[in-house]
Amino acid sequence: MDSESRLRTLFPRAEIGAAISRLAEEITRDYQDKRPVLIGILKGVFVFMADLVRQLDFPLEVEFVRLSSYGSGRETSGTVDVVQGLSCPIKARHVLVVEDIVDTGITVAFLMDYLEKQEPASRRLCALADKPSRRRVPVNIDYLGFTVPNKFLVGYGLDCDEQYRNLPDISFLED
Ligand code: IMP
Ligand code: MG
């Protein structure tokens, strides 16, 4: 059996598009006069960020950080390192962190603490997907696309060992 035959579609691209339109409306309502800094967590967020910001028609800035939490495979290592940090100061800025999927919560909880030390004016979280059954540390998601089951998801930026990021739909890998 080749690897493609183990993929089952969970959210087709049209459903993802509809979720992003809804998120963009909510974010526009809250941020259109705030010139926010959107901070994406690489690599998984690159597709979501690209689609989201193109639906936000007001002044904003885009930054990325690269954190390591997953060495490889499907399990978090439990410790997080900043591999590539911010290139602009965020003191007194309105910050919106953009994440692909919140799983144990360790990555995003770490980033929120890291950013708080830089004294932003506000700090919220937008996530495309939330897998609450796997949570190990509490995380408050202010703007959420989908709540997802405890399955390993790929596509739309999400990878398994660096494969499948290019697929337009979100699928899960069957065991
Ligand atoms: P956490 O620290 O356990 O919340 O993991 C967060 C990171 O793990 C996310 O930014 C994703 O890149 C990755 N991740 C978590 N669940 C999945 C999944 O189902 N598929 C692909 N990547 C995932
Ligand atoms: Mg990943």
Write structural notes for this entry.
With 175 residues, this protein is α/β, with parallel strands linked by helices. It is built from three helices and nine strands; from the N terminus they run βαβαβββαββββ. A six-stranded mixed β-sheet has the order 4-3-2-5-6-7, with helices on both faces. Helix 1 packs across helix 2. The chain starts with 6 loop residues before the first strand and ends with a strand. The site of inosinic acid has 20 residues, from strand 5, helix 3 and strand 8. Magnesium ion is lined by residues 44, 70, 159.
List the helices and strands and how they pair.
Elements: E1 7-11, H1 13-31, E2 37-42, H2 46-53, E3 61-68, E4 81-84, E5 94-102, H3 106-116, E6 122-130, E7 143-147, E8 153-154, E9 170-173
Parallel strand pairs: 2-3, 2-5, 5-6, 6-7
Antiparallel strand pairs: 1-9, 3-4, 8-9
The chain binds inosinic acid and magnesium ion.
